[in-house]
Amino acid sequence: MIPVKPTFRVSSVCRLTVGFPLLMALTACASALPVEAEAVPEPSAARAQANRPVAEKTVNDDTGEGMRDAVTPSADHPLAFMFGEWVGPAAGVGPDRQPYKITQTERVGPMLDGDVVVVEGAGFGSDGSRPFNALAVISRTAQGEGWEIRSYAQGRAGTFPFEITDTGYVWSIPAGPGAKVRYTATISDDGWDQVGAFVSANGPPVKIFEMSLKRRGPSAWPGDGAVKP
Questions:
Q1: Which pLDDT does position 123 carry in this prediction?
Q2: What is the 3-state composition of the chain as percent helix, strand, coil, each rounded to the nearest 5?
Q3: Are 108 and 84 in contact (CB under 8 A)?
Q4: Cα–Cα distance between 223 and 216 in angstroms, integer?
Q5: pLDDT of 152 strictly over 70
Q6: Is-above-0.85 flag for pTM?
Q7: Which 3 state secondary structure label does DSSP give 221?
C-alpha cells in the first residue's frame, strides 16, 4: 500500500446518513478533512452461488398472494459468519477532524426466521463512556435479488446496497458527485477487520477508518427475550 496525504471535501449527503462501525458512516466525512491514510484495494468478488440463502415461499394471509422469500436461519445462512459478539480496537477521525481511538463492540443475530439480520455497534472510550452507538438491519431486497442495509445512528437513517463478498461484505454511502464512502470487511471464524475509505473518481481510495475485532462468542441476541403470552 502507498501512503498518501489527500485533502478532500465531501458533500453534506454523507452527514445525513452517519453511522459507526459495522455501520461506520463517519461524521468525519461531512466536511473538508485532511487525512493521512493508505490507499486500499477494491473489494473482492461476491461469494459463491452455494452460499445463497435457503428460501421459503411465504403467503400473505389477507390476500393469498405470494410475498418475497424468507431466509431460513441456519449455519448455511449467508450472513452466519457475522453472528455473535465481537470486541476490539477501532480508530478514525472524528467530527472535530481529530483522530480518535475507541474499543468497538458488535453483536449480530437473526430475527423473523432469518429474514432479517440485526446488528448493533457501540464504541467505548477509555473512561467507559459510549460516544458511538448505531443499529442496522440487513435483509434481502424486495425483489429478492440482492441485499440491503438500513442504518440508524445519531437520529439519522439511510438504506444502502449491501454486497456479500468472498471474504465478508462491502457497502457504501453517497459522498457527493462521483464520490462515496465505502466500508469493506474481512471476516474469519475469529476475526472481523473493517476499513472505511473515501472513494472518488480522481484518485485512489483513501482510508479514513479501521477496526480489528475478535469474536468473543455466540449471542442469543436479538432472538431471546421475546414477550410470551
A1: 95
A2: 10, 50, 40
A3: yes
A4: 18
A5: yes
A6: no
A7: coil
